[in-house]
Every structure is written in structure tokens, then in C-alpha cells.
Amino acid sequence: MKGRKALGAAVAVMVALAAVGVVAASAGAARSHILPQGFRYAAEIKAKVTYDGTYKIHQSGFQRCSTGEGETKVPTHEEATLHIDRVATFSHITVPVALPDELGKAVGKLGLQPTITTPGKISQDHSTLDIEDSLAVPNAESEGCRAETVVCHWDLSAAPGTGLEEITAHDLGDKLTTWAINVLGVNRVSGPPCAVGEGGGELSTILADSKKLYPEGLTNFPEVVISTALGNHFHQLLDKPRLSFNPVIDTPESGSANCATHLNEEEESCTNSVTGTTAIELHRLFFYKTKQAYPR
User: Fold this and answer.
1) CB contact burial 33-58 (16+ within 10 A = b; e otherwise)
2) CB distance 273 to 253 below 8 Å
């Protein structure tokens, strides 16, 4: 009899504990609809972006040349190489570390876009622009024209008093894909006079050509991803005070369809590509936490 009573008591205790567990679970489920005070939703970080990328474009075709004997077409080629090799450092960037699903209804009040709060500085800069072009010129001692090679070189450096201040969100329609920083900034282009043109103008032309390599919604040259939406790097900073990774910037070599738009494809051709390496270092400084509870 005593054994039965003991067994009955044990069962009663187990039932009671189970009931308590159900109540606790219910309470936990209820609490899941509330974002508690002290919830970590954002962080202040510093970042270092090491970028070493090269955009190269090669075009071949013809130039028309007029002389006293008439007009001729001279085969020509142009190769431009834009090399961005620099380090960008950021002492303060505010980034979201909570995912939208975690914030729920509170995303309208606590959701934020990454923001550079102190402009980034460029250092260790070895960026250059080189162009080798051939120009059609009349022959001095004979009829017709010939191609004369022209070589131009410019050094690029960050313009004094400027910094990197923007983080760009790339998306595919309503779906965010990446946050990226363009390490180009405002540049001073210096070099000797060149028959091809002025360095600043050539830089703008080449950058415009480079954008044709990239489908809409992806980063452009010389941008680098500092966080993806899938496998969110900012979110990982909740558990990791430091994070390092190497975004890929290489593109396949592309032909005339994604190159200059003014080509006569029967007589001209064009290829371009981006190659290089990057390194991202994110260092968490501190968290931003909710000062009150919010409904999710």
C-alpha cells in the first residue's frame, strides 16, 4: 500500500510539473510577441576595406582619315586599364544587427539602413588609369594614313577634404540583396597632357563603360559588398565582435553586347572585365538596445 501511495505521489508531482511547464511555455509564447527592453537591434562598428581591382576594356576597329588623295579607313585599337588599389577605413558606421523578422511590427521604429556616421578615409592609395590608343594620322612622306600609338598615364588620389559617405543598398525588385561601399569617392587625376583627352573625362567614360558589365541589382565597379542580405554579415556581429571576409569582384570577360554601345559590330569589337581581390574587416564597438518594450 505504501508503495502505491508513493507511486501515486510521484505521478502527481510529475503531472504538476508538466502543468507548470505548459504554463511556462504558454507564458514564453506570449512573451515572444513582445520585443523586450534591452533588445540589441543595431551596433556601432568600425570597418576597413582593402580593395585591389582592375577594370580593363579593349576595343578594335577603324578610324577614318582624310588626305588630299581622299578618305581612308585605318585599323585602330584602344586598351584602357583602370586600377583601383587603396584602403578605406571607417571609424563609425551604424548597422542593423536584428533581422526584420525578429523586430516584427517594431521594424518601423527600430529598423534602419546602414549609415556611415563619420566619413571614411582613403589611404595606401596606388590607383592609376592607363590608356593605349592608336590614332589615324596622315603619312608625312607618302599617300594615305597610318595608325600612331599614343600612351597615356594618370595617377588617381582622393581629393583633399573629401571622404566616403555612402552605403548603397542593392536589390532585385523588392528583395534586398547586398549593402555595398563604393571606394572611388572624389578623385584628383594627375598626369602629363595626352592626345587622347583629359584624365578626368577619360575616367568618367571608363566608369560609365564598366557599369554595362553588371546586371541591374548587383554591385558596380569599384563597389565592394560589406554585408549580404542572405547570411547577413551585420547580423553575425551579434555573436562575433570581429568579422573578416573576402567578397568576390571578378567578372567573366564580356563581349560587345555588354561593352561600348556605339560599335559597328561588322567592323569593330570590344571586350571588358573586372579582376581583383578585396578584404573586409568589421569590428563591433557597441550595441544599441531598446529602451522600452515594443509589440512585435
Assistant:
1) eebeeebebbbebbbbbbbbbbbbbb
2) yes
Q: What is the per-residue pLDDT for 185?
A: 92
Which pLDDT belongs to residue 161? 84
Nearest to 222 by CA among 244, 242, 192, 251: 251
Nearest to 88 by CA among 127, 128, 114: 127
**Spatial CA neighbour of 222 closest among 50, 89, 95:** 50
> What is the C-alpha separation between 272 and 208, in angstroms, rounded?
12
What would the grid cell of residue 149 be? 600609338
Residue 193 lies in a domain: yes
pLDDT of residue 255: 60
**Based on the number of CB atoms within 10 Å of its own CB, is 20 exposed (0-12), middle (13-18) or buried (19 or more)?**
exposed
Residue 166's pLDDT is 92
Q: Report yes or no on whether pTM surpasses 0.90.
A: no
Alpha helices in 193-247 (DSSP H): 199-210, 233-236
Residue 175 lies in a domain: yes
- For residue 141, being part of any structural domain is answered with no
Radius of gyration of the chain (CA): 30
Give the per-residue pLDDT at 262: 56
Beta strands 34-35 and 70-96 are unpaired
Which range of residues forms the domain containing residue 264?
33-54+88-122+151-295
Output DSSP code: residue 208.
H
Mean pLDDT, consecutive 10-residue stretches, the chain (296 aa), reads 43 41 39 85 96 92 75 84 97 94 88 92 96 83 79 93 90 83 94 90 91 79 88 91 94 65 65 93 97 92
Question: How many structural domains are present in the chain?
Answer: 1
Q: Please give the grid coordinates belonging to residue 22.
A: 505548459
Is residue 130 domain-resident?
A: no
